[in-house]
Amino acid sequence: xxxxxxxxxxxxxxxxxxxxxxxxxxxxxxxxxxxxxxxxxxxxxxxxxxxxxxxxxxxxxxxxxxxxxxxxxxxxxxxxxxxxxxxxxxxxxxxxxxxxxxxxxxxxxxxxxxxxxxxxxxxxxxxxxxxxxxxxxxxxxxxxxxxxxxxxxxxxxxxxxxxxxxxxxxxxxxxxxxxxxxxxxxxxxxxxxxxxxxxxxxxxxxxxxxxxxxxxxxxxxxxxxxxxxxxxxxxxxxxxxxxxxxxxxxxxxxxxxxxxxxxxxxxxxxxxxxxxxxxxxxxxxxxxxxxxxxxxxxxxxxxxxxxxxxxxxxxxxxxxxxx
Length: 323
Prior knowledge:
With about 325 residues, the protein is an alpha/beta fold. The chain has eight helices and eleven strands. The chain has helices at about 1-15, 30-40, 60-70, 95, 110-135, 150-160, 260-275, 290-300; strands at about 20-25, 45, 75-80, 135-145, 165-170, 180-185, 200, 205, 220-225, 235-240, 245-250. It has a six-stranded mixed β-sheet with strand order 2-1-3-4-6-5, with helices on both faces. It has a three-stranded antiparallel β-sheet with strand order 9-10-11, with no helix packed on it. Strands 7-8 form a two-stranded antiparallel sheet. It is globular, with a radius of gyration of 21 Å. The protein starts with a helix and ends in a 23-residue tail after the last helix.
């Protein structure tokens, strides 16, 4: 299957495109990071099956190829963000997937488990190409209970490419779910993303311990602001302001229900901006839109995959690489 990927790369270079992207976000969901990058004048692209089931399914041949085209369209020093689907890797679904440290593949008699394995392997291939061939700065995210990091191809990627681990809480970035998470990243400024939080005994005030660059003493001002939720009495929570002018708040922002909030996108952008390898200040040409890139892909597209038995249940699923 390596020959198939090489042929896809050759197809991309037939288009004679000049790389233009500063962020590629795989499994982008609501894609707040891409919107934040765009708000700062940097071109970005997301990849999400719910947006386009034909071109943005990493388990399909053409979907994998489009994701590969996006990565090859990123300039060296761009950000590569991937929070691949976690539902078949976390503790809550362990009775179904039956994964353990000794059997990370899980119960492969079940289609959804095989599909999750396929998603992860194909994602690893894309990340490895992005990091090793394009010089991208990658960040991978999963809930803390995920066992995905132990799959051999993923473990090899993390060790061979020099990723380092960060533990954080998405709730500290205004996510409506607390979500303790593990980040594996190549960002030298990755510690900016280390945030934790806790409620007080009465669950009325939301405290934020600080990032690595601020200490508790750096917080010099606070303000009581109203906060209420349906079916409860109005309460207040404290907003803490730091000397650097930034702010952190514990209020649940129900409108910001995406996997990666705008606040997380802002902190991630700052970390990328300050990374010595970042291309943030390198001029980039205006690239084609996602629709234009998909049309260009079809101009050079040749199907090369022989589909397996899973296609009876999902037409395009397959694996590019083995374990």
